[in-house]
Amino acid sequence: MTAGSKGGRIRFGGPFHPFPTLPMTTYSETTTSTHQSDPDALKVLYGLSDEDLAHVRSAGEFLLPDIAKLVDQWYDWLQLLPEYEEFFTDGEILRHVKDFQLDYWSSFFTGTVDATYVEDRRRVGETHARIGLPLQTYFAGMNGFLTLMAQALSAGSPDAPHGRAEVERALNRLVHLDTGIVVDAYTQMVSHTIQQQNRMLMEMSTPVTQIWRGILMLPLVGIIDSKRANDVMSATLGQIASTRARVFILDISGVAVVDTAVANHLIQITQATRLMGCESIISGISPAIAQTVVELGIDVGSIRTTATLRDALADSFSRVGVEFSGSH
Asked: What is the reported pTM?
């Protein structure tokens, strides 16, 4: 009996690639670990021998003639899932993706794990991450195809359980290798996206603005840690260099906690700006912050501070020769 000739609906998943993979940015080239990019290292990692690959090729000779039927059965099952309506409302897309599935399994059953094979699997993971496909769905699909192949092999060779077991173990190992590559690429792309978002948020949280010729201001809100303090310093020094600012106002009225570490960060920022010829003023010193600084014994004698942003602005305008007036 050839694979897929048994009737009925297959109620388990298969590898799910809603859209054809597309070239991605080159970030993966610099973040991919050696084990996840080197074909020989991957084969060692997953215990995949040349004998296993020979078994995969022999299974392919039996399974590939009817692989299109198996893919069709899997998509029948997929119609039961919400993902189907999300990704396959267009018949042309469905046809294209089915063609991609056939190419995927044709590559799988060559039993050749080389650089091209690995890169193709990485693009699958990157595509899944881009479209937001849950890893659970992918795992279910790969497990489902393993089950489907095992059933087809069993139906085709019922009298050879020992040899069939070796073939099934080989298929398992190669599927596990595929899954490892896909998941590694998926998680790296998700991590890369999160890092980009964090970087954008950090840039938004350090908006050093020129409010007047020679005057810069940065209102800080939230928590200050070493990473954020370094970002503030870099952004501030860069703006000082480009604008030739003489005064920098750092408003901390929105800072949640001021402890020894935060105070040291602020001192370092003011010292760095002074080295560039720009005087810093820290505004927004509340009674609670003042009391905390005194209790901690922090020396802030070299830092110019004001209770309010208004006072800091008045001081800044005076320093650059602009008369500041307003109602009191």
From this structure: 0.59
